[in-house]
Amino acid sequence: MKSKEKTKKVYMILLIVCLVVMAGLVAGLFGYAHHMGTKTMGSRIKIFGEDVSGLTVEETAKKLADDFQKIPVTFQENGETDYQTTLGDLGYSIDETQLKKDLKTLRDKRWKEDGYFPKQADLTVTYQVNRDDETFSAALTEEHFQLSTERVDATDAYVAYDGEQNAYVIVPEVVGNHMDQAAVETYVEEQIRSQVATDYPKTGLEIEIPSDVYLKVAVTQDSQELQEKAAALNTSLQKYQGVSITYTFGNETQVLDNATICSWLVISDDSVSIDTAQAQEYIKNLATKYNTIYKPRSFTATGGDETITIEGNEYGYRVDQDGELAQLLTDIDGGAAVTREPVYSKSGYSRNGTDDLNGSYIEVSLDQQHLWLYKNGVLVTETDIISGLPVDGRETYRGAWPIAYKASPFTLSSDVYGYDTAVTYWMPFVYGQGLHDASWQTNFGGDTYKTKGSHGCINLPPDQAKIIYETIDKGYPILLY
To answer: What separation, in Å, do the N-terminal and C-terminal C-alpha atoms of the chain show?
Structure first.
């Protein structure tokens, strides 16, 4: 009997112990559940797919913030991946202060609604994304985007001369692929914000770089300004196509042809002009060939094969190189074929090419005391003369000059020599010396000049003076040797 009571007592103790243990377990379970629900994010909970069961609000916020910055961002351009980075390296982060507040609100709401026995949940929470602008800009410079091919510069359309077409054409713009930093930043910001602002990215982000972010050209081939510029330049260019200058030297000509003129063109993208240096060189060569004054003159004397050289040559033609350049540029600018003489600073009486006598001149041999008058290659008359007395101050000057003018009648006078003599025909050539009739002379030619020589003038028989006077004009050449 006592054995049964003892056994019953043991059972009772065991039951009490079990009940106490069970009560402890239940209390511990409820305590654990309370701790999990109020001190951590709870159990059986994911946020944005991240298991945060048992993590405190602070731990959860840090985990989400850290993982957010590690999210990979892949950039693609023209079908190829050219840059891989992370949100953190791009300067993006989650505002942990705000995130903690939102997580705590979420935790408290879940505890209130689900209590000790929360259901398994995969939740979201609002969050604020911050961006460090300096890091963001530095991470999006062009050198980070490594294409397999070199980038191409964008170039504006422009006007250029095409030698094959001999015309100005519009060279189309080149659409390059260098990045516009500001445009890239704006585009990437829009892409990232649209993907992370409302949904925590569980995997990496992929961003396709469009051509819209490339540096733009400012001028296209459709530009009205370019069209007008090309048209104006072609008009200017075409103006030169028909230009030529035919220089006349009596019956002889020298042609500055269109091909030569066009070879002088300085054609740039903005203008068509003449290279004046080449034009000046052409005129210089023209002058060298056709100038006849102020240089020794050689000719064959009448009555023999002797070549006479006259050093004092002040008769002939001289091209005014500055004046000719100005006229030449004006003619070229006029756009037409022109025939004319060069611009002269000195002109003779008549010329045919380099021959500035052209068969019309007065030849005087002081040694022979004889004069010949030629007109258009024909001997008009010849006569004996009396030249200056062969003493200092009275000799006739040797040289070549143009007749300065004609006068009839005329009075010859000299305060130095004390004479005042009337003549019928006066034709001066240099330094007060000239041709004139000398009725007071009885004999001409021979050695008469040695005793009855003039003060430098060429004395002529009156009838011969008349012939000469009526044949020549101002500028007629006279050669004395």
So the answer is: 187
- Using DSSP, state whether 269 is helix, strand or coil: coil
| DSSP state, residue 398 | P
Residue 367 half-sphere exposure toward CB, CA atoms < 13 A? 4
Return d(Cα 202, Cα 184) in angstroms, integer.
24
- Could you give the CA distance from residue 95 to residue 108 in angstroms, rounded to a whole number? 20
Per-residue buried b or exposed e for 8-17, using 16+ beta carbons within 10 Å of the residue's own CB: eeeeeeeeee
Please check the confidence at residue 406 and state whether its pLDDT lies above 50: yes
C-beta atoms surrounding 386 within 10 Å? 25
Query: In whole angstroms, what is the distance from residue 476 CA to residue 481 CA?
Result: 17
For residue 354, count other CB atoms closer than 10 A to its CB.
14
Give the whole-angstrom CA distance, residue 364 versus residue 372.
7
Angle (nearest 5°) at CA 31 between 29 and 34: 110
- Supply 377's token pair: 């290659």
- Find residue 174's DSSP bridge partners: 155
Question: Which candidate, 184, 160, 179, 183, places its Cα nearest to that of 170?
Answer: 160
Render pLDDT for 348-384 as a digit per residue (tens, 0 to 9): 999 999 999 999 999 999 999 999 999 999 999 999 9
DSSP letter for each residue of 224-246: HHHHHHHHHHHHHHHHGGG-EEE
pLDDT classification of 27: cutoffs 50, 70, 90: very low
DSSP calls for 189-228: HHHHHHHHSSS--SS-EEEEEPGGGBPPPS--TT-HHHHH
Q: Which of 438, 449, 433, 430 is closest to 387 using CA atoms?
A: 449
Q: What pTM was computed for the model?
A: 0.61
> What tens digit of pLDDT does each residue of 86-113 get?
999 999 999 999 989 999 998 898 888 8
Burial pattern 124-136, b for ≥16 Cβ within 10 A else e, equals: ebebeeeeeeeeb
Residue 98: both structure tokens together: 């705000």
